[in-house]
Here is the input.
Amino acid sequence: MSRAFVKEPDGDQVIDELPERVHSPHVNYVTPTGLRQLQEQVDGLLARRKSLAGAVSAENKKQRMYIDRDLRYFEERIRRAVLIDPADQLEDEVHFGAVVEVETPEGRRMTFAVVGEDEADAAQGRISWVSPLARALAEARVGDAVVWKRPTGEVELTIVAIR
Here is the structure.
């Protein structure tokens, strides 16, 4: 049959099912800030769902489906969370929650915080504990040199400070 005579969705149809959001296979380590951010996500989604409660349009039903799916995702992330307080960690080596200052061979200094997957934001210097950079830094001490294996090539970094 020719596709010319098949009715295409016009955007008003409601999706019957949404695929669930995929969870990371890694342990969900979180800092207190990360756990708070996850709870804020849930609270925001609950508020959005409440604001749509009386609306019956197809668009609102679609939005509620997305909200409900995201609620299931974030509630599960919270349920799986393993809280690690950086204040309880030793500062003599890089670990989850540490803030690490490194220096490149050219003398450029960068600071990174090793955090959970949900709170990672490379632009803010917050790197996931499962990232290649965090894995390279893991258990290093001040003065140690580590190799960060990037897609564009390897970079040697020297640990300058750990907080």
About this structure: The two ends are 67 Å apart (CA to CA). The CA atoms of residues 2 and 30 lie 53 Å apart.
